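S., here's the first fold you wanted:
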Amino acid sequence: MAKEKIRLGGMALPNGVLVHGPHAWACAIRHDDGRIEVASARKRLQAARIQNPVLRGPARLAEALLLLPQIKAKLPSARLPMESPRTVASMLGAAVFVRGLRESGLRPVARELLTAIASVAPAVLALRSGELAAYHGAEHISIGSYEHGKRATREHERCGGHLVGPLVATSAIGNVLAGLAPERMRRHAQAAAQLGALAAATELFGWMTRHPSHPLAQALAKPGHELQHRFSTAEPSAEQLEVAEAALKACLALEHEAAA
C-alpha cells in the first residue's frame, strides 16, 4: 500500500520559499552570492489539531502569522512580502478606499462586496512582483510534484488564492448582516462578522477541494484560478526550484521525525 502523503502548504518569499506541514515548517532562501540557507522548526501552534469548525479558520491564520517571527529569527536575511514598500502602500490605499466606501451611498450589498474585494487587493498586488511570482510557482511545483508523484504545474488546487472567492462572498454577506444590528452594537457585530466570514470561507474552501467538479466549487474557485494564471505565479528558474526543493526536503524531514 502506498504511503500516505503529508499534507503541505507554503508561502513564497521574494528570495525564497516556506513549506509547512501539520507539525513543522522549513524555509529556504537564496543569498545574493548564490548560497542557499535553510532553517526549520516545529510549529508553536498546530491548527490541524483544532476540530471546531468556527475556530479552525482563524487558527490556521494565527498559525501562519506566528511562523513569520520564527522565520525572521532563524533567517534574518529572509524577505517577507509585507516588508515591501509597495505592499505597505497598497494596504494603506485599500484602507482609505474601504473607509470611503463605508461613507458612500452605495447599496449595502454592493458596498460590502467592493469592501471585501478591496481587502484582498494588497495581497494580490504583492504577488505581482517578478521574483515573488516565480518563487510562488516554484512552491507550487515542488509541493505538487511531491503530492502527485510527477512534475506538477505552477498552479496548485489548494493555493491560498482560492480563498478569494469564498472570502469575498462570506465577508460581503457577513457585513450586510452586521449592518442590520443596532448602532450601539454595530462594531461588535462587524468584528463577529469578520471572524465568522473567515471561518465560513475556510470551511467552504475545504469543501471545494473535496468536491472540485461541483458547479458551485468551480464558480468559487474561478477567481483563484485566474489570479494564479494571470498574476500570482510565474515559471520559476532551475535555481528557484532548487530553493523550493530544499525547503520541501527540510520540512518533510521534521514531519517524518514527528510521525516516528
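And the second, which I think is the more interesting of the pair:
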Amino acid sequence: MLFKLIKKDKQCAARLGVVTTSRGEIPTPIFMPVATHGAMKPLTPAQIEETGARIILSNTYHLHLQPGEGLVKKAGGLHKFMAWDKPILTDSGGFQVFSLPNKRITADGVFFKHEVTGEEIYLDPAGATRIQQDLGADIIMAFDECIPYPCDKAYAEQSTHKTIRWLKQCQNAMTDNGQALFGIVQGSVYEELRIMCAREMRKLDLPGYAIGGVSVGEGLELLKKVVGWTAPHLPDNKPRYLMGVGLPEDILESVERGIDMFDCVIPTRYARSATLFTRRGKIRLTNKNYKRDFFPVDPSCDCYTCRHFTRAYLHHLFVANEVLSAVLSALHNIHFYLTMMAEIREAIANNRFMEYKGAFLAEYLGNTGKKRPA
C-alpha cells in the first residue's frame, strides 16, 4: 500500500491524497461503507459499487465468530468469498470485544464469551493479526484497548501504554503478504496521552495511522479537540483514519483537521429505520407527512432511488414492511455520503474547503445551527 499526499487546502489542514493498493486506488478524503459480516445490509456488492464505493470495511470479531477465518481463507479470502474485488479494510475487533459485558482484560489479551454458544474465547494482538491475515484484507488494524468514556486519567494512561505495547506485538506477528497494518492512537480525552501515543506509534513507521476511541459517547466538541490534538503529530506522508465516525458534520469537522479516511454504520443503520440524509437535513420517511409527497428523497440527488422513486413510495414500503424500503434507502444514504466526499475532494483541490463546509452546514443544519425540516 502506498499513500500520496497531493495537496493541502491553503486555509486549513484538509488534505487531498490517494491510497494505492493492488486492488485499486482510493482517493482521499474517503468514506468507507461498513460490511460488518462480509455483507452490507441490505445491498449486494454490485449495488455497493454503483454508489461509488472504493473501499469497504469488515469486522474481524464478527467474522471470527461466524463463519470463522479458516473457512474464509479456504474460500480464497474475503474478497472472493463476498465477491468484492476492490480494497477491504478489516477492523481488529477491539471495539466490539471491549464493548462486551463480562469480558476480562489482562496485560496480554482479552477473555470473552461467544455471543451464541457461551464458550470462552481468548484474543490477543498476535491472534487478531493472524485472523486478519487469514481473512486477507488489504488494510488491517492493530488490536487495541478501546477506552470507554468517561474514563479517569490513571486508567487511560495505563491502557494507552498497553495499546502501544500490543501494536508492537501485532507488528511482530505480521508476515510479508502485502497487507498494510495501521496503528490506532488511543488516550481518551487527555491531550498529553493522545500526543504521547501518536509520537510513540510514529516511531514504528507504519503504513497508516488511525485515531480510535472517539465514537464512544464523547460528543462532537470533544471529538474535535481529540482530532485537533492528535492529527498534527501523525506523519504527513501516511493516511490518517478516524474510526467509527460518523455524521456529516463530524466528517466535515475532522477533514478540516487533517483526517483522510472514515467509516461508520450510520448510513445503512439509519436507512433501515427510515431515516434518510438530504441536503436540508435528515428526514424520517415513516412520518405521515410523506404519505402523499411525490418529490424524490432529495431533489438534488442523482442516486438510483431519487431518479426512480418518490418519498410517498418509500413511505408506503416502510409502512408495508417491505424489504425494498431498506434497499432503496441504503442506496440513497451511501450515495449521499460518497457524493459529499467527492465534493470535499474537489473543494480541497480548489482551496475552498472552508467555504464548502460553511455552505453545506448552513443548508444541512440551517442558519440557527439546528436541523430544519425538509
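Why I say that: The two ends are 42 Å apart (CA to CA). The chain is about 40% helix and 20% strand.

Talk tomorrow,
H.
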